[in-house]
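Let us practice reading a record.
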Amino acid sequence: MKPSLSLKITFLAFLVTTLINSAAFAGKTTYRCDQGPGCRDERVNFGTAEIQCLDINGDILSDWVCEYEAEYSCRNQLTGEIRKGGFDPIPTSLCSKLCGQCKTGWK
């Protein structure tokens, strides 16, 4: 018995949706500068990230929503400030640009 065309289309749609969702929810990573401040990087979906700069206690100092491709554009949700620049694909680059440089590197 051969599967019907509608069953094939439904399966294909399910497969594509699953693949898109798995890439869209890339996850949340928290970086620290030594034992000091932190940076939480959450990749919401491809081309969009939320960066939160944290103090030593984990309290949010700034909350950025960024869109990026060849360059980035980020808006601070707390103050309305906007920052733009060239995008570097290294995961900690947005942390460095928005939360400040870390001499020993964000880990």
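A brief commentary: The chain has a mean pLDDT of 82.
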